[in-house]
Amino acid sequence: MQLDLKTIEALAPDQASLGAAAKLTKRSNWPRLEAHEQLPLIWGECQGSGSNPYRVAFDTSDHGYKCTCPSRKFPCKHILALAWIGATTPDSFARVDQTPDWVNDWLGRRRKPGQPPAQAPARAEGKSIDEASRPQEAAPVEDAAAAERREAAQRKRAEDTRSAVSAALDELDQWIADQLRLGLAGFVDASSERCRRIAARLVDLKATALAGRIDELPARLMALRSEERPDAAIRELGKLVLLAKAWRAAPDDAELKRLVSTSETRDQILTNPDAVQVESDWEVLGEKIETRRDGLVSHATWLLDLGSPIPRFALLLDFFPASAGRRSAAFAPGDRFKARLVFYPSGNPLRALVAERLGDVAPGAWPSFAMDAAGDPLAAYTAFQDGAPWLADCPVILPAGAIALDEREGAWWQAANDPHGIALPVAGSVSQTLLGLDLTATAAVWNGARLELLASQSNIGRLDLS
């Protein structure tokens, strides 16, 4: 398979990545470039913003690649730059007879297109009694010196990550100050370019989660009316400042680390003794699938606890590459099931994992939840903001009301049974068939400015609004 510039352009996720890759082809950024003498395999080390260079490998036969950088683009600019050098100046690579261990490890773990998954070796049949009674060999025990070195290396990596994230938040503070100095009107108009620039810098400094949040800010602003965008920008920049201050005060807090740098793995959550576990009946309220600018697809599924006396929710959140295509959903809106959920550690536990599904539950109406004594349907949002003011989306249960349409302002949710009740603007459009329909209860996500409807209970049954 020929490797040329057209192939590289086809691999590039966007023109910006291709331009960044062209800049990285300078030899000053590539201290080592090597290729196997016979196999169509090239690799190299590219110096990034950290102390250790990124290790990059590319298989020219099937365009498989591997890079140790934290970028969420697939492929990243380092892969494109390595392929660019291989296509334009192949003589830059030093031919070697043996590949390094880290390349061999990647080759051993990857599966090429069309290659069946590796099968586990079959157990020998007819095992003798002597062999069965023979004691199994114990796994080698790690000596104290090796364990100490491993723990020291882990502490060193944690310290390096903390230092890098601290530097990232310093740059974020300076960037926010620059936006305020230049004016928010200009920021809204140029938000795409400005946010992409600071997000790339935050990725280099290991603040990947925070970078993704800033990279999605322009899309959220453009979804609003033009007169609402400056206020929304002020709110989001203020939340970023609060998040940076909270991380500096408690850098080891699991929730703050999740919002700024990296999240825990599924196994870490399931085995965490401090994680909140809830076994109850759950209903799938709705889902939200978004394609992000970094090439990932965010799949959020909202659940309602049917056994709680007060409204309690759970959020199942998954990410996968957009190139993988749409995944088959494990849940459908309206599904009811009994399950044990494990929540991510947080001051306001919301994101969760399904640890064990215990069976289906018959459909029916929602229970009558105990509401705030003052009758404020947004009391839960106020408490949510008091605990984590750097967050925005809060699920709520709204009391009886209806959806009304204001021809001048757009679609609104309105408390029809109380003339003094509040009216909340609804994000997006609402089906005309729902206008004026009496809703006994509505589940939605409120972000302080817009209401994203999930589901409602009415006299004609459950309504899917997501």
TrEMBL record:
Pfam families reported for this sequence: SWIM
Protein's name in the database: SWIM zinc finger family protein
SWIM-type domain span: 54-87
The species this protein was found in: Mesorhizobium humile
- Give the UniProt keywords, A-Z: Metal-binding, Zinc, Zinc-finger
Composition-biased stretches, type Basic and acidic residues, lie in: 124-134, 146-161
- Keyword Zinc-finger attributed: yes
**UniProt keyword annotation of Signal present:** no
